[in-house]
């Protein structure tokens, strides 16, 4: 019988494991309390949350999160930040107009050659690898997909919100591509400086580039300004022996060919209600490993345990073993314990 790490390793390497691995982020009080055997509090969370992972799942992705006190903060720049139990929301940064945004970003681009590697960069890389090692130690026999750098498009539009970002795209069309070039060069340089013993078998490259109706940006723009950078970064990761699990919410169907051509090895989270279909993706790209695939927008929070079990078995059959079963984003507090237990039972019984 394989352990969790061996099971996940088999899937990402194109082999058939002894059973389908379970893949998820646990942000659900009831599930954590069930698998840890302890009541979850803010005080004991650093112990209890991690204790729940090993019996509950085989693999997880960044970041293992602890519950927090709910409060509203005012950041030094005046923006509001709301902390909820499992998530946080930060008010977008507001610039007076597109030119003010462009001026601020030009100043960032003038900070130096992005391919230069400074002592401070090495310290940050060393610290990142130390954090990854620490997470692995706390997770035990769970396969961790650590976060790895990508082009960072989500970070750019997330800073200001999609509306102001769209104005900047129209009013200052050269500034966003320049920022993507800068960030992608920084990312490629990061991979180049990884030590031989970095220990990252597969990483999680998250960049939300779609919503339910399709890609957030035009296919022409993405193919000119995003996918070439993504391809360059994935090549840098592959050169260091790292497989890339690409994450984006939404309907990726119009750009799946582009993602595969860019070199992704796996895809997450397979958002079912956005039109993503495990069987269709597997038929088109049988070499990809998949992670997720069980709808957490409606099915997991509102469906019956039997409906959940049926969806799990259908997804496993459709992927022919090339999937790690989990929620289509994360296991949030809206999901009843009985439905996650039904998901897990269906996976354990399906051989």
Topology:
Elements lengths: L3 H9 L16 H8 L8 H12 L2 E2 L10 E4 L5 E4 L4 E3 L7 H12 L9 H21 L3 E2 L8 H8 L1 H10 L3 H18 L9 E5 L3 E2 L2 E2 L3 H7 L1 H13 L3 E5 L8 H7 L3 E3 L9 H7 L4 E6 L4 H4 L2 H15 L3 E5 L9 H13 L2
Parallel strand pairs: 1-5, 6-9, 9-10, 10-11, 11-12
Antiparallel strand pairs: 2-3, 3-4, 7-8
Helix pairs in contact: 2-3, 4-7, 4-8, 6-7, 8-10, 10-11, 12-14, 14-15
Description:
With 351 residues, this protein is an alpha/beta fold. The chain has a single domain (4-65, 111-349), classed as TIM Barrel, CATH 3.20.20. 47% of the residues lie in helices and 12% in strands. It contains 15 helices and 12 strands. A 5-stranded parallel sheet has the order 6-9-10-11-12. A hairpin with a 2-residue loop joins strand 7 and strand 8 (214-215). Helix 4 packs parallel to helix 8 (175-192) and helix 10 (227-239) packs parallel to helix 11. The longest helix has 21 residues, at 119-139. It is globular and about 55 Å long. The model has no long low-confidence stretch (mean pLDDT 96).
